UniProtKB/TrEMBL annotation:
Its EC number is 1.17.99.6. This is Epoxyqueuosine reductase. It comes from Crenothrix polyspora. GO terms for molecular function: 4 iron, 4 sulfur cluster binding; cobalamin binding; epoxyqueuosine reductase activity; metal ion binding. PANTHER family: EPOXYQUEUOSINE REDUCTASE. HAMAP family: QueG (MF_00916).
């Protein structure tokens, strides 16, 4: 009985320390993910992961935490709000086909670094209280079923769009985990509250949510603009609109996000006016400018070539104008077959001959 009381007390202390460190919620769960493992295997069997080979490369480590970090018996799950601006501001950018839309999670400092430092501080706090213990912290950087774990830890439920939704906070938040050998008291799993709503399915610009709780990543704008390394399928290019890095449409449509709160983290605030940039302006950035203005940002991971590829598509979808055509033609000397292919497609959308400068 003393052990149970001790574990209860420590679990509650961990939650309080987490809140003091800036996490909006902390939950604890066990490592049993059999149902999530089956869901993942079915998803992989349908090839919905596209070119994301890392989704199956690690075998069962993703769904069996003790295989990834030996001795894990409990998982501490955290979430941190990141919404940097009101949804009306996002709607305005999406409604302007000459503006560059970037998924709002990527406007500020790279969330991996911020959450990882906070998780380390939480682990240090636990260690200072109880002494050495086994643990490993993760922030979207290893084979971890973070949403399934967060759902079991009571942080929210996995919605029909595959994002985690919290009844009091919507879905605009990041997740992080600490795998530990501490036998902590676990929380009650969240239950699904999507009901008959299909707003996310209806709004998806490429119809990537092929059924409730099933996303075909190969059609998803986030996959196409971030994960895909090669050419964006021609048939999907017009559907991407002005989204040059990621997509937030399913979250914007979700009625639970009326409860979302703006972040208090300054590091998540937009840098270099990335929330209000025009397509022609960001397309004109040199590679040095791109590297400078995406320093410390999640955007840098796609590199300059894919950055230009994405914007070329968006410019192809923009209304025809002299500034758009000139911007595209100024890149015709750029040494990249992939960029050239997307440039030519974009110019053809404006009935321009890509061979004429």
């Amino acid at each position: 009985m003393e052990l149970i009381d001790s574990n209860n007390n420590l679990a509650e202390q961990i939650k309080q320390w987490g809140l003091a460190l800036g996490f909006q919620q902390v939950g604890i769960t066990d490592t049993h993910l059999a149902e999530a493992e089956q869901h993942l295997q079915r998803w992989l069997a349908k090839d919905y992961h596209g070119e994301m080979a890392y989704m199956h490369q690690h075998g069962l480590k993703r769904s069996r935490p003790a295989l990834l970090h030996e001795g894990t018996v409990s998982v501490i799950c955290v979430r941190m709000d990141y919404l940097p601006e009101a949804t009306a501001a996002m709607d305005n950018v999406l409604a302007d086909p000459t503006a560059a839309y970037i998924s709002r999670y990527a406007l500020g400092r790279d969330y991996h670094k911020i959450l990882r430092k906070r998780l380390q501080k939480l682990a240090d706090k636990i260690q200072a209280e109880i002494g050495d213990f086994g643990y490993r912290a993760f922030v979207d950087s290893a084979p971890v079923l973070e949403k399934a774990l967060a759902e079991k830890a009571g942080l929210g439920w996995i919605g029909k769009h595959s994002n985690l939704i919290n009844r009091k906070a919507g879905s605009w938040f990041f997740l992080g985990e600490i795998y530990t050998d501490l036998p902590l008291t676990i929380d009650v799993p969240a239950t699904v509250h999507c009901g008959g709503c299909v707003a996310c399915l209806d709004i998806c610009p490429t119809q990537a949510i092929v059924a409730p709780f099933q996303v075909d990543a190969r059609r998803c704008v986030s996959y196409l603009t971030i994960e895909l390394h090669g050419s964006i399928p021609v048939g999907l290019r017009p559907l991407i609109g002005n989204r040059i890095y990621g997509c937030d449409d399913c979250q914007l449509a979700c009625p639970w996000n009326r409860f979302a709160k703006l972040t208090s983290e300054g590091d998540f605030s937009p840098r270099h006016r990335l929330n209000t940039q025009q397509l022609v302006d960001v397309f004109a950035w040199t590679e040095d400018e791109f590297l400078t203005k995406t320093e410390g940002s999640a955007i840098r991971r796609i590199g300059y070539e894919r950055w230009l590829r994405n914007i070329a598509v968006a410019l192809g979808n923009a209304p025809t104008s002299e500034s758009v055509i000139n911007a595209l033609k100024l890149r015709l000397d750029y040494d990249s077959e992939m960029v050239q292919e997307h440039l030519q497609w974009a110019l053809e959308q404006h009935h321009e001959n890509p061979l004429k400068k």
